[in-house]
Amino acid sequence: MEAYSPECSDLDLFLSQSSGESQGRVRSDSWSSTGSYSRFVLRQRVAQLMTCVEDVSSDEDIHEELSQSIDNAFKICGKKMTSKTEDFRIHLVTWNVGTAQPPRDVSSLLLLDVPDPDIDMYIIGLQEVNAKIVNFLSDLAFDDPWSLFLMDILAPLGYVKLSSIRMQGLLLLVFVKHKHIPFVQDIHSSYIRTGLYGYWGNKGGVSVRMSVYGHMLCFMNCHLPAHMENTNQRLDDFERMLEAQQFDGESIGSILEHDVVFWFGDLNFRITDFGIHFIREVINGNRYSLLWEKDQLNIAKKKEGFLKGFLEGPLKFKPTYKFDLNSDVYDTRWKKSLLGFNGKKRKPAWTDRILWKLKSVPDDESGDSIGSDFEHVLKVNLEKYTSHMHYGISDHKPVTGTFTVQMTPLIVTPPVTVKAEGEWNADHDALISYSVAKDFQSSTWDWIGLYRVGFRHTKDYVTYAWVKDDEISFSEDCNQVYIGADDLPLDGGDFLLCYFCHNLQCLAGISEPFQAL
User: Would the N or C end of the chain have less CB density within 10 A of its end CB?
Assistant: First the structure.
């Protein structure tokens, strides 16, 4: 057997990397997605360590050094595993708005009518937003009425629209509390059409994924095919979305690779077997549990492998479809068929749903293996799952889910620190200083925007400077760029500086507020 050299062992490499002593590591574009990748590297190192243990000779000195090194490794693991857990509260809304304009008041829908709701992120998924050609073209050039309406409400409360995606009538909006913005990174969106065999976007899904304090979250807003008899098509379409929908970037491609997936929307599943009169009688008696076993989605979750692991709160609220407009009365109008005969009234159904799924741990990664405990740094708790019956602008009632995501932050400091230097006014050029983390990789497409305090979305800047083109000094500790006097606002006010990172598709650093004269 060849002599074992502890001077260049895999264990020492493992320890140096774990304790942050390695130098010159180049960050990939997906460095913020450390959760799954770091666990993979850790398991590789542990496997290499076990191989080394099997190969060592009986030399007592080597045994003692290995023992000390292993003790140090477990100390590092112990510190990681006992890191403080933080609560991150997400309020999720799904609503088929039936082409209607926003209502006057959505306080209860957004929990604004309760004292101190303490929501960190709002996820709002809408279906059947008005997509007539004139409206749709207007919305492409400007924000749609729903986005403007919700920004008007949430921006004064300290929330910023970080992302949105629109596909015809499907709209998904992400609002985040100001203090979390630098820690919500790697933001990408995607869509997939399923209407007319994949050529039309009246049905399908829109998704946004992001890293929240280093944990990968994905939100899917879907509108699946309607009618009782189309259960298989609904399931086929959703399975196709899970398999085919991809995001840009190297870190995570498919939907189910994320740490948590939230699936919601007008999923259009119906209640089978029972007649309309029995269903309405059960609803009037608030005995909803009698209908659960005949709900098509509940049935499918027990049979379909691709739905394994998707969770949902109990349906302890009235079915959310179909209602007469501006009322809480179920469908009383007779549907006209193509030949002019009266059709059947629609049976009530829980068409509007919110589900979630935690990333599965493969069997060979579970059990007693060292490092498996790292999988449990993120938990999802459903606080409340309900409908809101007093909204009547469409034949669907909105549904909300309030979640607490318990997580161990994997990112604790912003990647970029930004500061306004000196006095700012339109009489001379303005100076900006910024510094970046050691493993931060900037891009020629990065820029620093000047925003007014209380800005509404990431493109709501007054002006900006390219970090490379407008650079005036560079050092290892601090960089400086300038904004020309001609680009500064003449009216002054309270402002912020935000560093936009192209690689992470996020605002990676925000300055303290300052005044421009």
Answer: N
Short-list 154, 151, 150, 172, CA closest to 163 = 172
Question: Contact at 8 Å (CB) between 355 and 331?
Answer: no
Rounded to an integer, what distance in angstroms lies between the CA atom of residue 242 and that of residue 176? Answer: 26
pLDDT of residue 202: 76
Which sign does the torsion angle of CA 133, 134, 139, 140 carry? positive
What is the mean pLDDT of the segment spanning 452-473?
95
Query: Residue 231: enclosing H or E segment and its boundaries?
Result: helix 231-244
How far CA 71 is from CA of 15, 65, 474, in Å, comes to 11, 10, 42
- Alpha-carbon span 202 to 75, nearest angstrom: 54
CA proximity to 184, closest of 254, 121, 270, 130:
121
**341 — pLDDT class (breaks 50, 70, 90):** very low
Give the residue with greater pLDDT, 64 vs 223: 223
CATH number for the region 416-516 comes to 2.60.40.2840
Architecture of domain 86-407: 4-Layer Sandwich (3.60)
